[in-house]
Structures are given as structure tokens and as C-alpha cells.
Amino acid sequence: MSNPRRYSILGITSIIIFLALSYLLFASNPKTIHTAAHFHITTYLIVLSFNISIVLSWIGFGLFSGIAATVLSVLVAVIGVLRIGCYNAAFLSLSFIPVTLAGYRYWKTGKHIEHSFGLRSEKVEETVNILSDELRKKRADTKHLEEKALRYGALKDVAEALTTTLTMEDIARLVIEKADSTIKKAGRILLFLVDTQKQELMLSASQGREKVKAKQGDIFDMWVLKQSIPLLIENVTQDFRFPSKDIDEAKKHFKSLIAAPLLSGNKVIGILRMDSPVEGLYTQDDLRLLDILGGLSSVAVSNAFLYSWVQDLAIRDSLTGLFVRRYFMKRLHEEIQRSQKKNVPISLLMLDIDRFKWYNDKYGHAIGDIVLKHITNNITAGLGEGDMASRYGGEEIAILLFGADIKKAEKKAEGIRKNIEASPFTVRRERHNITVSIGVSSYPKDSMLEEELVKKADERLYKAKSLGRNRVCAD
Fold first, then answer.
1. pLDDT of amino acid 92
2. Beta carbons of 346 and 403 less than 8 angstroms apart
3. Worst-scoring range by mean pLDDT, 20-24, 168-172, 400-404?
4. What is the model's pLDDT at position 345?
5. Domain ranges of the chain
6. Both ends of the chain: CA-CA distance in Å?
7. Does the pTM of the predicted model rise above 0.85?
8. Could you list the active site residues?
9. pLDDT at 35 > cutoff 50
10. What 3 state SS string does the chain have?
């Protein structure tokens, strides 16, 4: 690589030499120089110095300065020699020619080298730029892969957490938390589960800036439910897969969306969704991650459904769906203890289907089961929040009313009786008005022990039957 500072010094040196020689030739007394003892040696040194000045001019300043230095040196040298009167030394100025040629050769070679070096430098610089761009891309890719590895690595913790949770409420909460911590995008997170009885979406859990109004999902959730595939919308206003009226309503709440179905086999059991008011917030990688989360969540939700079903098998009657007697008596004991602490009443209804044996004998046990389910549906539809019913034995049903004294319980029982009587039942094209008899007991009026409460309610039930059936007895 060239050194401009060094060449500038050489060029300045050539000028100094040239000026010194010119001064020597024109300012000195010619007779003094001519009579000097070493005249010829001085002449040769002057010519040599001019040659050095020419060479330094070529090296220091290049083509034009070299030519100018050569021409000026020839003129000054010839005039100076003639002035001194040493005509024989004039021919020495011919030495300037090979020196000039050598300087030109040096300059041309230097230019060629500089040009070659410049081309190589440009090529090297271009290569460096390309490598720098590739390095930046590699670093960006590496950072992206590291982030992706961390995000996908977090799925192991998600899987472990979901496999150790069995209740649906805990699973729903955990799915929302893990979706937030894994995808790490600001927005609303929604988890819908499919109600198997109604066959519609129901909001199970949510997290985000805005209260969810569509508890049963919107057009986008229904699309995922129907198509059974993930959905990515970068800008809801530019997506033409959905009706414009739905788009107009949706854009008030969000602009971008990702949603993944929770699949159990080929059946959708839920939808995991994230949306945001920011356009283009979610990527394909986010959707893939959400889909994997959905897959893990679907296993956990299926296990929770299974666990709940097994739990129900242990405490619910398979025909009617009512609680079994053993669980009912356990709850009755617990509620009496709770009522003692809070000083609130509870009441017990014992209900029996009138002439149920006649239905079984005439139409068979299959019809008897249908009658029992018909009665059960009427009872459960009329129960208040917190009340519970149990298949106590055969066609006998026990009902526990929380916070109800004997008067309220008698009124509730009368309402159940009338509702059943007003709901006729058709058996083999014959219309039947099924009736029930009900006995009522209350804590603490009748007893403070669950066995005594059951006994009192049973006694009053049989009293109702003995008085002609289809009535309520509370004393």
C-alpha cells in the first residue's frame, strides 16, 4: 500500500535540490567555479544532483511533475553549464534522458501496481462486505434459533405441568399461562372448550386487555371448529375469507389473530386463540408453537374429561345422572356440620314415584327407566343453585335444599309435585299423568342428626302415600 506522506517528502526534497542547484549555477561567480581545483568533479556532482532531483520528482509527484522536472533540469543545466563556460560538460545533460525513462518506467509500474492493488482491494472489500452481511444474517439466524430453542424447550415444562394436573379449571388456567409465557406476544388469550351436550363452544378461561363478549366464540373460532385446522390472520381488514359485517365488528377489538384447534382423534374438543390490536404481530412460527400447545392441551383436556367422567361414575347414578346414595349421605353430614357453624337451616325431601311398580309390571323395566329419567329431568330443572338430588334407592329420590326452612322446603316440594303432574308422559301412544309423593324434614327443627332427618322424611313420605298419594307431607 502506498504511503502519501513519504512520497510528499521525496517530492519536496527534489524541489529543494533543484532550487539549490539553480542557485548554485546562477548566483555563483562563473570564474570562481571555472577556476576551482575540482571543477570537473563539481560539474559531475551538479548533473548527478539534477538526476536525483528528477528521480525524486517522478517518485514523489508522478507523471506531470517528473516531466516538468526533467525539462526544467535540462534547461537549467544547459544554461548553467554554458554560463560557466564548460561546453564539454553540456553533453552530460543527456544523462537526464535515461533517468527520465527510468522515472517514467517506475511511475507506470507503480500505477499498474496501484491499479492492481485497487482492484484487489475493491474485490477484498466486496468480499468483506458479503461476508459481513452473511455474518449478520448468521448471527440473526442463530439468535432466532436460540430463541426458538428456548421457546420449544419450554414445551417440555408445559407437557410436564399439564400431565400433573387433572381438574379442568386448573388445566384451563395453566394453558393460558403457558401460552403467554411461551409465545411472549402481547395480546388477548382465549381458551374455548366444546360443550358435548349442546355441541357449541364455551369460554373456559381468558387473559388480556379486554373483557370477552362472545362467550361462545365468533366467526373465526367457528371457522377453526369447522375446518379443524389452525388459523393465522395478519390483518383482519384484508382477509376476504370472512363476511365483511363480521370483519367490521372484529376490527374494533383486534387486527391480528392466531388460533389452533384442540383435537382428540378427529374431533375438535376446544380452541386455543390469541389476538391483538397490532397488525402482523403473529408469525407462522407463533402459529406452529400455538398448534403444538394446542396438541399438548388437548391431551390434558381429554384426560380431565376422562377423570371427571370417572369421578362422576363413582358418585353419580349411571341411569339418572343423580348422585348415588353413599355420596349424598356424606354430603348431608358435611352440610349439617356447616349449618351448625353458620346457623342456617337445611331441608330434606324424600320423593317416591306413585305406582312405579305398575309401570314396570305393565310396560317392562325399559319403560320404567324412561319414566324415572323423565321424573329426574323435571326435578333437576327446578332445583336452585347449590341444591342437590340423589337416587336414594329404586324409584326413591332424595333432595337436599340449602338454606331452606320447613316452610320453604314444603313450598318447593309442592312446586316439584305440581310440575311433574303437569308434565304428562306418553307410553305406547297412551298419555299418562305421572304423580309423586313427597315427605319433608328440616334441620334443626326436626333433628340435628342426618339419620333422624332421613327417618323423618321417610315417615312423612309414607304418610303422603297412605293419604292417597300425589301430595306433600311436612308434619
1. 61
2. yes
3. 20-24
4. 93
5. 1-164, 168-310, 323-473
6. 117
7. no
8. 395
9. no
10. CCCHHHHHHHHHHHHHHHHHHHHHHHHCCHHHHHCCCCHHHHHHHHHHHHHHHHHHHHHHHCHHHHHHHHHHHHHHHHHHHHHHCCHHHHHHHHHHHHHHHHHHHHHHHHHHHHHHHHHHHHHHHHHHHHHHHHHHHHHHHHHHHHHHHHHHHHHHHHHHHHHCCCCHHHHHHHHHHHHHHHHCCCCEEEEEEEECCCCEEEEEEEECCCCCCCCCCCHHHHHHHHHCCCEEECCHHHCCCCCHHHHHHHCCCCCEEEEEEEEECCEEEEEEEEEECCCCCCCHHHHHHHHHHHHHHHHHHHHHHHHHHHHHHHHECCCCCCEEHHHHHHHHHHHHHHHHHHCCCEEEEEEEECCHHHHHHHHCHHHHHHHHHHHHHHHHHCCCCCCEEEEEECCEEEEEEECCCHHHHHHHHHHHHHHHHCCCEEECCEEECCCEEEEEEEECCCCCCHHHHHHHHHHHHHHHHHCCCCCEECC
Mean residue pLDDT across the chain: 80
- The top-level CATH class assigned to 168-310 is alpha beta
C-alpha cell at 178: 403457558
Would you state the pLDDT for residue 348? 94
CATH 2.102.10.10 fits 323-473, yes or no: no
pLDDT at 80: 63
Q: Quick one: pLDDT at residue 1?
A: 44
Q: What percent of the chain has pLDDT over 90?
A: 24
- Residue 262: HSE in the Cβ half-sphere, 13 Å Cα cutoff: 23
What is the pLDDT at residue 87? 56
Grid coordinates representing 391? Answer: 337416587
pLDDT tens-digit series, residues 214-267: 788 889 999 999 999 999 999 988 888 888 888 888 888 889 999 999 998 888
Longest dimension (CA), the chain: 170
- Cβ atoms of 392 and 328 closer than 8 Å: yes
